[in-house]
Amino acid sequence: MADLSVTVDGLTLPNPFVIGSGPPGTNANVIGKAFDEGWGAVIAKTISLDATKVVNVAPRYARMRASGSREVLGWENIELISDRPFDVWLDEFRKIKNDYPDRVLIASIMEECERDAWVEIIERCEETGVDAFELNFSCPHGLPERKMGSAMGQDPEILAEVCGWVNAAATKPVWAKMTPNVTCIVDPARVALEAGCEGISAINTILSVMGVNLDTLRPEPTVEGYTVPGGYSCKAVRPIALRMVMELATMMFGGGCGAPIPEGDELPIAGAFLDRSLSAIGGVETGEDAAQFLLLGAQTVQVCTGVMIHGYKLLTTLADGLSAFMDKHGFERIEDFRGHSLRYFTTHAELVRRQAEVKAAERAAKAGMVTKDAAWEGDRFVEQSDKLVSRGSDEEN
Ligand SMILES: Cc1cc2nc3c(=O)[nH]c(=O)nc-3n(C[C@H](O)[C@H](O)[C@H](O)COP(=O)(O)O)c2cc1C
Questions:
Q1: Cα of 204 to ligand 1 centre, how many Å?
Q2: Which of 166, 168, 171, 242 has the fewest CB atoms within 10 Å, counting from its CB?
Q3: Domains present along the chain, CATH in parentheses
Q4: Per mean pLDDT, which range of 63-77, 198-212, 247-261, 295-309 is the poorest?
Q5: Is 179 in the pocket of ligand 1 (CB under 6 A)?
Q6: C-alpha angle with apex 161: 160 to 162, nearest 5 degrees?
Q7: Average pLDDT, integer, range 109-126
């Protein structure tokens, strides 16, 4: 039976499945439910010091289903961070840590670009006993209008400054949650790591417009006839999340932005951020989905929309699927295969070279030409030698 436990930034989780920040971690009640069901850790809904500035609208979700089926492929939200008062959250963090002392509770925090605000939110959360922080540099809607969320994650200078303030104040591990709404996610992630963050989480939602209602001619989700672009999540974003996690892991294992890890090198190879962690997010609903993120270098895998669709019992499906995958390959621990598939990414030019090499070998084999010394045969030696002679050199004068 596979061992699903992971130790990340000094925290031990019974399994790598983490509730991603959002509705599934929105109060002490539901966080308790997640721990009761066995989730490895919970990242609470993002909080800020002053919740009075947070005003949500309804409806605030829109879904894309597979044609002719109820299956949800894509999910857009225009939800803000938590609208619950900071002091209420502090009491609930205390209560959760009191009720579940051995379980990992991570506070997701967001603030405006003011040093004192970030220091205050860190210090007051730490007093409650939370185990780690995730910095929300990535919410793509609403908050960026106040220069928060993805507005910070898209600006390397501000990012470096804020991460510096946070890491000077925090005594607990800090993960920076990155936005996919950038050209190269590796660049801001490197800035966060250089500023001392222990880990990277990726991805938050992708800025999107779900669609336009062809009866009303209004875009969805429609609030009093209007909308704003929102954040896209669920299965549909998984391939994009896998690509970004691959790029982040490649950088953290020592490769460049999108540059392949040299063939033949044993992982991990020398790199700048081997001691840091990577938490993957985006469209996970099965253990097999999660295994792919782990194969691309993540230590933990977060799930948000999947829990909104399937409920907290999804953990059983996730754990069973991951265990079955590990048993099939004889992997006993997650570290046995973490990052394994990164080595199979390369450049297009290299794909072309490899294919040409294989084709040349096939052509030679078809023509009966010996291409490897082991292929020489005693009985066919003369014939094999003859086949290797260049015909132009062999013409009779
Ligand atoms: C309704 C909703 C609310 C969310 N709220 C937050 C939030 O408060 N803070 C945050 O960091 N991410 C938030 N997210 C983003 C998720 O944590 C996650 O990064 C994203 O949805 C992709 O993962 P998924 O496909 O598993 O949902 C929210 C996502 C959804 C769908």
A1: 6
A2: 171
A3: 6-344 (3.20.20.70), 348-394 (no CATH)
A4: 247-261
A5: no
A6: 95
A7: 97
